[in-house]
Write a structure and sequence with these properties.
The chain is an alpha/beta fold. About 35% of the residues lie in helices and about 15% in strands. It contains 7 helices and 6 strands; from the N terminus they run ββαααβαβαβαβα. α4 packs across α5. The longest helix has 17 residues. The two termini are about 20 Å apart.
Length: about 210
Amino acid sequence: MKLDVLNIEGGKTGRSVELSDDVFGIEPNEHAVYLAVKQYNAQQRQGTSKTKERGEITGSRRKIKRQKGTGTARAGDIKNPIFRGGGRIFGPRPRNYGFKLNKKVKQLARKSVLSAKATDGQIVILEDFTFDQPKTSEFVGVINNLELGGEKVLFVTAEPDQILHLSARNLQKSKVVEARNLNAYDLLNAGKIVLSESAVGTIDQVLGKQ
């Protein structure tokens, strides 16, 4: 698949880029995408919830009433979970929700999303560019020139670009990532994917045939 390379004014540069079939032309694997997104979401969880159980509540261990003859249920100390202020039964504890996913499964997930986006015409190739200094208004101007205003846009660069990152940081629907740090969630969450011209080669290098 060939796509025209656009400039930051939204016009054609006269150049085109060939998208590799190994990355942008495979049959999408929905289950691999599901697993990759599930792992990403799991790793975003802090896992710091904690409640005090019976052994962690401050209070006396004295038995509060005799065992029999009261006409009510037997009870131990005031830390009993059925009492107000008692410990919680089986409450949450700090834990890591993340799980292992094979490298090739994550690669397949990224290629599946890229292939689906390419088939749907949701990938734009943009010439390499940067700003002299972080400027959100200039970044918004590029988005508008590409006629992507109002859409969730993922900008993919070949190398880390702090200026572009800072320029897009305040925009709720825009995100800038390095090609080597792509993940299935960001790709799937974006309405349009804008690849820098040099990022295409980096993606082929990272996700191509191993």
